[in-house]
Amino acid sequence: xxxxxxxxxxxxxxxxxxxxxxxxxxxxxxxxxxxxxxxxxxxxxxxxxxxxxxxxxxxxxxxxxxxxxxxxxxxxxxxxxxxxxxxxxxxxxxxxxxxxxxxxxxxxxxxxxxxxxxxxxxxxxxxxxxxxxxxxxxxxxxxxxxxxxxxxxxxxxxxxxxxxxxxxxxxxxxxxxxxxxxxxxxxxxxxxxxxxxxxxxxxxxxxxxxxxxxxxxxxxxxxxxxxxxxxxxxxxxxxxxxxxxxxxxxxxxxxxxxxxxxxxxxxxxxxxxxxxxxxxxxxxxxxxxxxxxxxxxxxxxxxxxxxxxxxxxxxxxxxxxxxxxxxxxxxxxxxxxxxxxxxxxxxxxxxxxxxxxxxxxxxxxxxxxxxxxxxxxxxxxxxxxxxxxxxxxxxxxxxxxxxxxxxxxxxxxxxxxxxxxxxxxxxxxxxxxxxxxxxxxxxxxxxxxxxxxxxxxxxxxxxxxxxxxxxxxxxxxxxxxxxxxxxxxxxxxxxxxxx
Amino acid sequence: xxxxxxxxxxxxxxxxxxxxxxxxxxxxxxxxxxxxxxxxxxxxxxxxxxxxxxxxxxxxxxxxxxxxxxxxxxxxxxxxxxxxxxxxxxxxxxxxxxxxxxxxxxxxxxxxxxxxxxxxxxxxxxxxxxxxxxxxxxxxxxxxxxxxxxxxxxxxxxxxxxxxxxxxxxxxxxxxxxxxxxxxxxxxxxxxxxxxxxxxxxxxxxxxxxxxxxxxxxxxxxxxxxxxxxxxxxxxxxxxxxxxxxxxxxxxxxxxxxxxxxxxxxxxxxxxxxxxxxxxxxxxxxxxxxxxxxxxxxxxxxxxxxxxxxxxxxxxxxxxxxxxxxxxxxxxxxxxxxxxxxxxxxxxxxxxxxxxxxxxxxxxxxxxxxxxxxxxxxxxxxxxxxxxxxxxxxxxxxxxxxxxxxxxxxxxxxxxxxxxxxxxxxxxxxxxxxxxxxxxxxxxxxxxxxxxxxxxxxxxxxxxxxxxxxxxxxxxxxxxxxxxxxxxxxxxxxxx
Lengths: 499, 496
Fold this sequence. Notes:
Oligomer: heterodimer
Strand order of the largest sheet of chain B: 1-2
Structural class of chain B: mainly alpha
Largest sheet of chain A: 2 strands, antiparallel
Number of strands of chain B: 4
Helix content of chain B: over 70%
Number of strands of chain A: 2
Number of helices of chain A: 21
Structural class of chain A: mainly alpha
Strand order of the largest sheet of chain A: 1-2
Distance between the termini of chain B: 23 Å
Number of helices of chain B: 20
């Protein structure tokens, strides 16, 4: 029986967007509740997926396939496996929570929610698509709402940040477009004799023909794909759009950016570069690991130097995404599982961090670390939530960040001893900037002007508590997530290493 | 086919000729002209469109002793020209740039240009190609200068004439050289002479360059693009829209036919043609293509007048379109045709927004578009439509322009020889986003808090047309199967 659950996950927000678009523009609350509904159903479906997901198979599940354009053998082809299922869950959860984090948006409310729901559709599509063309369309479709969401509702330098984000990511994706076309023309389905965009079929190396059997072109393709994905992650030196975009974006959009969009980079590498070009992947594995190490150290050092707490969180994302790269380039079961778990964990932790920054910014209207102090006296509940997120980010045992970072290190140490040892310095640096920030903002004496700062409210708690629960739970008992991803990732690992 | 027999297949052209005459005649007897003449135009054009679709022998016959060729390829372009003319007629109704007393002649010239374009796309003979190219050009010179008492408009017209005359002269000279070495002016005749033996590489190269100069001027490619920004800026907006699609498509149609029939031959394999002229013209065209798109995009960046910006953007698009010629394959030709379908929708759409904005605010400055999305619900609608057209021009899914670019890139990658051109083209796509996004930026990213921007309204006709064009642009990016089948049928003629 064909289940249409993935289609519903992707297109229900789009239906929501269409409904919001016809609501009168002054009905702010109605718009917000429709949007909440349009993301709540996908969340419910995602939970259903989580429950009924078959953890014993590495194949694709919930598959849907229909012909889309016959002339180019393009299919509407969806399916998820262990690599994508956590991302689907994360997307559904964060989109739902971010609707509530967007409650405070007061100008252009209708436009905001329409674009937000379109963004939701695009992101969900990227994680479910199994046809390269479809993947590419979703990948780019996502850029449009993002550009407007940063550009219209962002901070003072929003115009610059928005276009920089757009140009960078477009550059990356057009490179991917060329590779996509190369895969199409230099592949032949042995059954039908046609060229194909089918990502599952393209994994079979005997489908590749002509120039794509030469190592030179395969390496070139790998690098072009890498640039496209590295811009998204972002990997040094393509990271400069990230601090601008994250800082200027409104809180919910920063959450989506850091929580989901960054993962698309590493997801793309795992979904496309790894299985389609396993030989080139092996060839560049060390390079990937070195880039991971640079990201970890460089991101942490940059974070340490920041005065703006949102900028600090942005740089900490660069650092944490480095762990993903390091883990997945190790080709060990621990490393690659740790990497994907880190993608999930970073999604929840960094979402918390941005929400937390948003809470204080809404009250104090600035984000200068030095400008605060002693907030723990004034806002105890807020401080507890912050402490959880901060400690999870620095990898405190018992919280989720620890598990994934430990797995990454265990995996990577087997393959790259020196790199792992150097990367471990990153953990110390992370502890450094996090604790130091904690101290400057929450400890010490409270500033006079913040004596009347209101405590975190119910709506804000509603967005943060579910994430905190997940962070706790995965930190103590990560098996539900690991079971979900393990079969597929071990299979992928075997595919790449040829074992 | 002999002359008298041919007439049966020539009905659409005869109807268009009759329309040109009818418009001029009706013009004489009317005082309030706009509505009746526009109605006559639309009805006449639609009747000839019907005739185009219903004419028998659409599988490929040559008429008038080989002068004119009737085949799916020419039928495709005829449809494009007539649809463009219908839309431009409706645009002209919405515009206040053309005075009512001149409206009849103005429409007559549009009909005459369309007739020329239809014949140009079917030309199978150098002489016919040259004559019909002039039939397209001469009315356009007049149309470009149609805003009476406007210095800019007169300047545009004069520049257009001078550049046009020079390049026509070059083209005739090139044709005469080619006749000298091959002894024939029909495309097939030239092909036979070229494939029979080497008639002198240098002469063929020089004549090809001269002919490309003539056609390159018509489609505004580097280095023959200089007239384009001035003419686009000075001409009445509906005419700018018309020039950017109709005559450009006509130039491309004859260019493709000439290069594919006279200078190439099919070597049996169905998907590709080979160059038989011993002059490496695909390489030459690839260079022109790369230079055109780069120059067009770089110069567009700093424009403050939106018509000038769109002029440079249309130069850049001519560069992209040449990729389809360079590929010299069935897919390349399909790509070119596909691109024209979506280019028609998105480019005319963008110009309709410019026209609408101009009629409201008397301004063509990009800076004046500030906060258009927030001025009124109609303003928001117009701004969203414009965003769709501009993103489609950039080549971002899910809009038609994206599929068009995919087709063009695909043809280059399939050919394997000019991969560098595809890389130049993607770099250009990124550059183009920068300047298209400038317009989007002022429309959306600014003015959300401003109070005093003033309202914005559009006529119901404009709203309807914008809806059709915007929906068309979006649908052609999602359900493009039918267009793919149509262009595949239209492009198959030169192959196998």
